[in-house]
Every structure is written in structure tokens, then in C-alpha cells.
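[Discussion] Sanity-checking designs against the backbone

I'm trying to build intuition for which residues belong where. Below is a C-alpha cell string of 98 positions. I'd appreciate it if someone posts a full sequence so I can compare it with mine line by line.
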């Protein structure tokens, strides 16, 4: 798929993560990445990372957070890096409900 992009004279797009992958864009696509500042101040609060000793501790913390947000009607999106991880969360949620 990546090779198709190289057939175009001009490419553009927007993303919040291109700056961190700047070298990959340069090496793979031979493209420069530039940052365009927002027109409004950033309102997001960046909290410190949470580090867990085991995967079980991390998953339990995620399940607790989802339960807490769900109880007040707040939707929550859980991102996972593969299908196996998504299926694991599905199993954990089903076990937690019983």
C-alpha cells in the first residue's frame, strides 16, 4: 500500500502523530513532516503515565476505569494493538459482569 503513495506528486494529510514518526515518513515516503500550530490553545491535560507491574494489574485498572465511566454514562474507547488483545478484553468484561 505504501508504494502507491509514491506515485503521487503531492501528498498532504493531518494527524496528531506524524511528528513522532517524522523519520519513518522521510525514509519510507521521502516526505517532510511539518507541524502546523493550532489556532487555539490546547485545553487537554496530559497526566503522567501509569506503570503497572503485571499485565493483570494493568487490565484490572482498565476494567475499573471503564466500569467507573460507564456508571455515569460516559462512552469510552479502548484502543488495542491487535485482535487478540481486543478479544482478551471482551473475555475480561464478560467475566467481570458475572
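Best answer:
Here's mine. Compare freely.
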Amino acid at each position: 500500500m505504501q508504494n502507491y503513495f509514491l506515485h503521487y506528486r503531492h501528498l498532504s494529510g493531518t494527524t496528531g502523530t506524524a511528528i513522532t514518526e517524522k523519520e519513518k515518513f522521510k525514509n519510507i515516503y521521502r516526505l517532510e513532516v511539518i507541524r502546523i500550530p493550532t489556532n487555539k490553545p490546547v485545553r487537554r491535560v496530559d497526566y503522567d503515565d501509569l506503570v503497572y507491574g503485571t499485565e493483570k494489574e494493568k487490565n484490572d485498572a482498565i476494567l475499573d476505569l471503564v466500569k467507573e465511566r460507564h456508571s455515569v454514562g460516559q462512552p469510552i474507547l479502548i484502543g488495542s494493538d491487535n485482535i487478540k488483545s481486543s478479544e482478551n478484553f471482551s473475555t475480561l468484561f464478560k467475566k467481570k459482569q458475572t
